[in-house]
């Protein structure tokens, strides 16, 4: 038995079922409420413990935080739970212990959609654009929850990523890898978020494009928007980070400023490769 | 325990029909229940064990019916003389043309092969029609009121059952090869289409099946009632247990069918159970539950799927042949997808997908309900309309449409089971 | 002259019927493809949704006729369509609330929804037969012909008549209007775009704050509207019989798949491809060929490639050919 009473018995018949674009996450259910919880950093996932579905814990009392005007970076070896920690902060997996606070409120029980409304912008690692829609439509969909005029924000995004303005009428799926990531970040910025979360924004792009993306991210952070990101390219990421978290097997292994971590012998030896 | 209890319930329902209505009705339900159970077993093999979605059950059942005609009907020599061999020639030519097209596709260079295949197809089709058409009209004009078709081989009717299975298996091979071989699996739409085509063939190719004129008086594996009634010994025995000859003979004949069908069902069920628990069955389930892992272990998933699709369809073909034998006639216009495809699906889902006993149980139970919902509906409508004035249009309409209650009921049963017992009455272990 | 006669015969017996039939199939296939894109399963109950929706329209039409309401030369049924749409929307929304929603919440695999739709199919089918009966119902009124064959002959002096039934003209006009409206909605409104986004990437749509239940609700309403319009047009053009509507499921599925499941543009193209091949291959070409060929070559038979009963075979063969060479359909499907 693969998955409960409503599994598909291995049926992949394209004439009756459409797996494309289906939801795969198991997020916090809608209907929870926030509670006031003053103090602490702007966004913090504190002592988070949890895993997917009924599976084993992936995170073990893991803490991640970012404050105004900062770039915080989560790094670590493969399978360390970096992306899981990020998803936990965003409510894409239910915590068994710990809490998430944003701007003086406990938002642990909020669904991801509700967190977007609270001002969190999230860029998933994969499937982070609407491939069949134009660049402009992607940005419009990013701003779906807004009822005011979005043209100003769209201009700001186009200023940040000029190439998108030229390709605004093109289907996002036809763009190159780096351009797609720009669309993805731009989409998240359209809500005018109070904090931006990026899950491996440079995965699968060339080094040149990666540098450019980092530049753009720094530019975003300079506007005062806190940025929390997971990165595979630890050196470059720590170099621009105000705060770094090294995760190992779902636990905080090292925490410090980006520079301090880069200078730390143990971090270098065990993780950055010398 | 649960299995036993549920089967006892079905037995009680059928016995109850015998006591309350008549033993004849009970046996009619039992016989079609046995046939339905085999069909459900076939679909369960495909869906339960491999996740294959076959919505063309009707087509395979109808092929079984065709097998009965082709095997057991006495040949019509005049029709054979008029054009029988020419028809065979046309079919042989068509097969050769298809083989030629496939050969051309495989050997010619990319640029030209499309045109070559198209040319072979078009020219082949017209030549085929040119060979076939005169033969067909010659055959169909041989005493059209009585025959007008080639007839069969005149072999014993019991032989038609395995032939039905083989015929269905052959067609299933062609469909499976095509639909499962595509980059995505398109089996559902393929089976949906082929079933309609098979029915269209049966309705239109009069030289083969007499079309909508039906083939009646098919040979039977059991004696005729009238012969029994004229048999002094039989009448005496019947009188001995207090039955009049007519009732006794009809019950005797139906019991004969029941025994034959039950033997087939038991044999097939035992085989299915053995297969399910054999290494082959375990592998099929492994493929179903984790296709990628199975593929990584070197299992050819498409070939496994093709295998099981053919097997399941063959079961439907056997059941179809049995059903036509029971009816004693082939009536192509009686094949309806709701009854012969989707009702079988209800049986499998209600019984429990993946569990052979469940499918058999579902076959009996749903067939019982399919038959008995009508009298129940009649009674219900009687109660509802009791207060209405006689002769009111609404009352007449309600009473007249009782027979459609069964469709409604089947839908409700399917939805209720899916909601509250999603794995069926007898879940897969 | 013979050439003109041949053309007129071709238009009369092939083009016009195929265009009307193609429009009906396209509308049906649009409904199937929308459900496939948004709810991610093939809806086996679609044919019966068309049947029950048409039944509502017919009942309202009869009511209007009884009240003495008429639409001049146009069929009264056109006035009844909005009522039919409202009633059918209520029915499918109720069905979604009672039946489908539960499985969405359970995150059931799409194939389970296919089986669920079989149950719904049984129920709709039973309801239709229970209420209006299984027989033929004729509900067309108003002017029968826009141009009758005889008028055309006297007008042009040709031997061949060209008859344009008003139902055919209405079918095409209404289909164009409905399709234009649908595309405008999908491409230029906020809700329409959110539907496309949801179909493209459900997770990301949720992250963007798109409410899935609302998307699903709007989809059902559109599908109900398409089904009612398609069913009513088909019923006006031919006749209404519940079983025919169940059978039309196959050409509709074939149209949607040929065009590329999930692609609205593909559904329309698929509808016309299927319709033209069905009509073309089951038409007896003797008349046209008699005009076109010299007398010596005149065909003796009907020159009918296949008997009309094999029209399903035609949709099926086209389907297989397309799938063999373009597995995702002509318009690369799977996104609305």
UniProtKB/TrEMBL annotation, chain A:
CDD domains: ABC_TM1139_LivF_branched. It holds the Pfam family ABC_tran. Residues 1-42 are annotated as: Disordered. GO terms for molecular function: ATP binding; ATP hydrolysis activity; branched-chain amino acid transmembrane transporter activity. Residues 43-274 form the ABC transporter domain. InterPro entries: AAA+_ATPase (IPR003593), ABC_transporter-like_ATP-bd (IPR003439), BCAA_Transport_ATP-bd_LivF (IPR052156), P-loop_NTPase (IPR027417). Gene3D superfamilies: P-loop containing nucleotide triphosphate hydrolases. Residues 1-12, 26-36 have a biased composition (Basic and acidic residues). It comes from the Bacteria. Keywords: Amino-acid transport, ATP-binding, Nucleotide-binding, Transport. One of its GO terms (biological process) is L-amino acid transport. SUPFAM superfamilies: P-loop containing nucleoside triphosphate hydrolases. Belongs to the ABC transporter superfamily. This is Branched-chain amino acid ABC transporter, ATP-binding protein. The lineage of its organism: Bacteria, Pseudomonadati, Pseudomonadota, Alphaproteobacteria, Rhodobacterales.
From TrEMBL, chain B:
Pfam families: BPD_transp_2. The keyword Cell membrane applies. It is a multi-pass membrane protein. It comes from the Bacteria. InterPro entries: ABC_transp_permease, LivM-like. One of its GO terms (molecular function) is branched-chain amino acid transmembrane transporter activity. This is Branched-chain amino acid ABC transporter, permease protein. It comes from Salipiger bermudensis (strain DSM 26914 / JCM 13377 / KCTC 12554 / HTCC2601).
Automatic annotation (TrEMBL), chain C:
Its main location: membrane. Pfam families: BPD_transp_2. The chain crosses the membrane at residues 6-39, 51-71, 77-99, 111-132, 168-186, 215-236, 305-325. The keyword Transmembrane applies. Keywords: Amino-acid transport, Cell inner membrane, Cell membrane, Membrane, Transmembrane, Transmembrane helix, Transport. Coiled coil: none annotated. This is Branched-chain amino acid ABC transporter, permease protein. It comes from Salipiger bermudensis (strain DSM 26914 / JCM 13377 / KCTC 12554 / HTCC2601).
């Amino acid at each position: 038995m693969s998955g409960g009473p409503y599994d598909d018995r291995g049926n992949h018949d394209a004439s009756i079922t459409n797996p494309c674009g289906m939801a795969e996450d198991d997020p916090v259910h809608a209907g929870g409420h926030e509670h006031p919880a003053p103090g602490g950093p702007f966004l913090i996932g504190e002592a988070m413990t949890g895993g997917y579905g009924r599976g084993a814990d992936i995170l073990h009392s893991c803490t991640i935080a970012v404050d105004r005007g900062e770039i915080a970076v989560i790094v670590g070896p493969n399978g360390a739970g970096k992306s899981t920690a990020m998803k936990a902060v965003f409510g894409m997996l239910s915590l068994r212990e710990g809490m998430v606070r944003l701007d003086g409120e406990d938002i642990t029980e909020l669904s991801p959609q509700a967190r977007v409304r609270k001002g969190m912008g999230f860029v998933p690692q994969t499937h982070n654009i609407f491939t069949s829609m134009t660049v402009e439509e992607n940005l419009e969909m990013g701003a779906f929850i807004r009822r005011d005029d979005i043209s100003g924000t769209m201009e700001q995004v186009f200023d940040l990523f000029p190439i998108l303005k030229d390709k605004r009428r093109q289907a996002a799926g036809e763009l190159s890898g780096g351009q797609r990531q720009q669309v993805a970040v731009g989409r998240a910025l359209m809500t005018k978020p109070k904090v931006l979360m990026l899950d491996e924004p440079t995965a699968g792009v060339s080094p040149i494009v990666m540098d450019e993306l980092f530049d753009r991210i720094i530019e975003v952070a300079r506007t005062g928007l806190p940025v929390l990101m997971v990165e595979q390219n630890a050196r470059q990421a720590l170099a621009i980070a105000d705060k770094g978290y090294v995760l190992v097997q779902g636990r905080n292994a090292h925490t410090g400023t980006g520079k301090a971590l880069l200078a730390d012998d143990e971090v270098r030896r065990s993780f950055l490769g010398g | 325990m649960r299995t036993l209890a549920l089967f006892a319930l079905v037995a009680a329902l059928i016995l109850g029909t015998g006591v309350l209505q008549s033993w004849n009705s009970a046996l009619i339900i039992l016989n079609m229940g046995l046939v339905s159970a085999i069909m459900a077993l076939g679909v369960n093999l495909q869906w339960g064990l491999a996740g294959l979605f076959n919505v063309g059950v009707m087509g395979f059942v109808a092929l079984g019916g065709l097998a009965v005609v082709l095997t057991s009907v006495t040949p019509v020599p005049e029709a054979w003389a008029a054009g029988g061999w020419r028809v065979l020639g046309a079919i042989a030519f068509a097969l050769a043309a298809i083989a030629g097209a496939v050969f051309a596709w495989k050997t010619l260079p990319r640029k030209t092969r499309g045109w070559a295949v198209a040319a072979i197809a078009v020219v082949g089709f017209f030549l085929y029609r040119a060979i076939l058409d005169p033969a067909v009209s010659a055959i169909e004009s041989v005493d059209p009121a009585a025959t007008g078709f080639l007839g069969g081989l005149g072999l014993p009717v019991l032989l038609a059952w395995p032939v039905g299975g083989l015929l269905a298996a052959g067609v299933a091979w062609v469909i499976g090869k095509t639909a499962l071989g595509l980059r995505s699996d398109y089996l559902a739409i393929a089976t949906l289409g082929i079933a309609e085509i098979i029915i269209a063939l049966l309705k239109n190719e009069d030289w083969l099946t007499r079309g909508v004129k039906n083939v009646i008086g098919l040979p039977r594996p059991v004696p005729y009632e009238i012969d029994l009634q004229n048999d002094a010994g039989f009448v005496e025995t019947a009188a001995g247990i207090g039955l009049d000859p007519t009732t006794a003979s009809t019950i005797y004949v139906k019991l004969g069918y029941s025994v034959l069908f039950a033997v087939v069902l038991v044999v097939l069920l035992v085989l299915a159970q053995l297969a399910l628990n054999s290494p082959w069955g375990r592998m099929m389930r492994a493929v179903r539950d984790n296709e990628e892992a199975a593929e990584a272990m070197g299992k050819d998933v498409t070939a496994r799927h093709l295998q099981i699709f053919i097997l399941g369809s063959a079961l439907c073909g056997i059941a179809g042949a049995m059903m036509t034998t029971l009816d004693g006639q082939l009536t192509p216009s009686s094949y309806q997808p709701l009854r012969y495809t989707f009702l079988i699906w209800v049986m499998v889902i209600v019984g429990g997908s993946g569990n052979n006993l469940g499918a058999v149980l579902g076959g009996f139970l749903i067939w019982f309900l399919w038959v008995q919902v009508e009298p129940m509906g009649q009674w219900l409508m009687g109660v509802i309309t009791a207060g209405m004035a006689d002769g009111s249009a609404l009352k007449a309409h309600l009473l007249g449409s009782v027979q459609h209650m069964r469709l409604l009921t089947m839908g409700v049963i399917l939805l209720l089971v899916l909601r509250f017992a999603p794995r069926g009455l007898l879940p897969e272990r | 002259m013979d050439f003109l006669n041949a053309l007129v015969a071709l238009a009369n017996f092939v083009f016009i019927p195929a265009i009307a039939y193609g429009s009906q199939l396209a509308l049906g296939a649009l409904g199937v493809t929308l459900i496939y894109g948004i709810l991610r399963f093939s809806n086996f109950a679609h044919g019966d949704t068309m049947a029950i929706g048409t039944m509502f329209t017919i009942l309202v039409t009869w009511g209007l006729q009884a009240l003495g309401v008429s639409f001049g030369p146009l069929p009264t049924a056109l006035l009844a369509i909005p009522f039919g749409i409202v009633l059918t929307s209520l029915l499918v929304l109720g069905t979604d609330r009672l039946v489908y929603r539960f499985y969405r919440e359970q995150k059931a695999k799409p194939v389970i929804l296919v089986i669920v739709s079989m149950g719904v199919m049984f129920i709709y089918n039973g309801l239709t037969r229970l209420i209006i009966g299984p027989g033929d119902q004729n509900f067309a009124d108003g002017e029968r012909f826009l141009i009758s064959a005889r008028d055309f002959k006297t007008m042009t002096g040709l031997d061949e008549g060209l008859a344009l039934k008003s139902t055919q003209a209405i079918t095409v006009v209404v289909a164009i209007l409905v399709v234009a409206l649908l595309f405008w909605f999908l491409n230029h409104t906020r809700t329409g775009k959110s539907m496309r986004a949801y179909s493209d990437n459900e997770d990301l749509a949720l992250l963007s704050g798109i409410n899935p239940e609302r998307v699903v609700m709007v989809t059902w309403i559109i599908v109900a509207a398409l089904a009612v319009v398609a069913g009513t047009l088909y019923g006006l053009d031919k006749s209404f019989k519940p079983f025919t509507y169940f059978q039309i499921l196959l050409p509709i599925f074939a149209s949607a798949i040929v065009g590329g499941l999930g692609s609205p543009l593909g559904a329309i193209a698929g509808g016309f491809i299927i319709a033209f091949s069905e009509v073309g291959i089951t038409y007896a070409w003797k008349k046209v060929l008699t005009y076109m060929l010299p007398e010596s070559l005149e065909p003796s038979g009907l020159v009918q490639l296949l008997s009309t009963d094999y029209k399903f075979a035609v949709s099926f063969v086209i389907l297989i050919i397309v799938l063999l060479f373009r597995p995702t359909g002509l318009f690369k499907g799977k996104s609305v």
